[in-house]
Amino acid sequence: MSASIPARRTFRRGLAAATAIVSLTVLTAACGDNGTTAADGKGRTFTIGLANADTTIPFLASMNSAFEAEAKRLGMKTVTLNGGLDNAKQAANVQTLVARRVDLILVCSSSPTAVLPAIKQANHAGIPVMALNAQLSPGADLVTYIGASDRQFGQGEGKLIVQALPKGGKIAVTLGTLGSTPQVERLKGIKDVLKDHPNIKIVATPVDNFKNSENLSVTQDLLSKYPKGKLDAIVAQGPQMYVGAQYARKVGRNEIRFIAGDYSKQVEAAIKSGALYGTVNQSPVLEGKLGAQYANYWLTGQKDKVKQPAYYIPLPPITKDNVDTNPAEWSG
Question: Where does 53-157 show beta strands of DSSP type E?
């Protein structure tokens, strides 16, 4: 464990700190009014920790940057730890934040259960915990969850499938990291929609682990296994589908509709080119900002502004009809 860092440090220069905070700008409309900053009237600065599933994944890296920037703007310090998509490491990172006595912990976990024992340690230590981006299974006390409903996300993809295949057809759904909340819940959401459309059948569910390189390999395998006329759409649970879609276009498989999840600049370009039919837009920037915002609310006595048990961000569909008026926020 890292050396203990006092979480409730008293500054003698309260006036100077307060003066600096007054200069902070107001939050954007997407995140609401910032209200009291983290040091207002307290004479101290809060430290919040983020145990992130993997800071190298472009979506989570963008969320991370937005979180740290917003926390800084609100006068808070941050400690961000990279879990490397390793369940044991993610749990250990939560324990590290508990040992460092941060004031609040946000957890973005690739497993809905692996971090629960560590969160219980935070509960026992009196440190509030919020889930960010990925929902967790019951078993530990959470202040709230901030992010998308992955079930609703999958339902959004399901609606795009129905829209893309009005006469029905056979589809493949490439799955993200097996057992992760997004993988499990997004597939449920897709099936929620398709149960009312029996003319659309899922014939394959290969795994691409939310990775560009694996999506390309999976797409190549699917195109080889299903010649023209045997497969009508390929749907990914993440943004990596643009890679397979662009490959299919190069080899003349334009008869297949491709649908992604999430909305990177690469996905935006693929929709504009016609390689992708559409996607569901989950904003990592909004999630990161709201994570810092909600931590600030909770720590500065504005608990009534924290929506419980969850705040679900909007998940608008993006197709050729609205892509030009909805620029993507991140790249990856």
Answer: 77-82, 104-107, 129-132, 145-147
